[in-house]
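Quick one: structure tokens for this chain, please?
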Amino acid sequence: MVRVLNASWLETFTTLCDIGHFTRTADRLAMTQPGVSQHIRKLEQQVGQPLILREGKSFTLTPAGEELLSIGRARRTEERALRERMQRDDPLSGTVRIGCSGSFALRLYPYLIARMQGAPKLKMHLSAAPQARILADILAGMLDLGVVTAVPDMPRVQATPLSQEELCLVLPATFNTADLTLQKLDDLGFIAHPDGNAYADDLLGCNFDDYRGAEHLRLRSFINQIGQIPLPVAQGLGYTILPRSGVEGFAHRDALAVHTLPQRRFHDLWLIARKDRAAFARVAATADGILGLQ
């Protein structure tokens, strides 16, 4: 059973069938006539059947040869179509896959929607995922672009500075922040989420001397849907810590208060892409738009 046809031999055979003459085929392919004959013999050996019947200086195709010619011409058509698609490389056509944190997704998705509205052939896939997963998917080619908080030390990945995001202590709008202490926060209760402990260690750890770690905070609730994390805070049930984009994307922003602590904490954001994909027109145009977000 033939699994993979030799592409070079198949092209020689297809060209010979189109031209109908060994010498002119050799000239067309910049080969010798014996070289053309050798390719035909090797192809016959690969398929296990004769492909042509010689009749003096001409030849006719066997039934196997006719079948193989149809395959050769179909492959040419597919390759020609592929070359045309690659040459077009339309920035407003195709699929772009992006990974980022859930909070940044709230900021990013409105831009992606606006971009798709002006480009009916453009598809945007946005996934909220942890940093390690984003990097792994970039390397595997499952994502075209990613937004991460650390520059990956990998030669196949290029990273471009995007922006900084401040970690915010998010409180109910009615909460009295006068003489704010860790005990007052603990009395209110922590609304936890997948990144909550790390954010708390970062922000609270450098602002309260009596902070002993996120595991000692009084937990009021846990939720892993980024768009819903501020909801219990807005209803006065607790406080949380989020990047600013996670606060600004909340529909009832007026029910929240962001309290600025003495020691502010910022995370650098980087836009990453695998180097061999960064030059694709649709990926490059989308990246330019993301870099332009304020």
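The chain has a mean pLDDT of 90.
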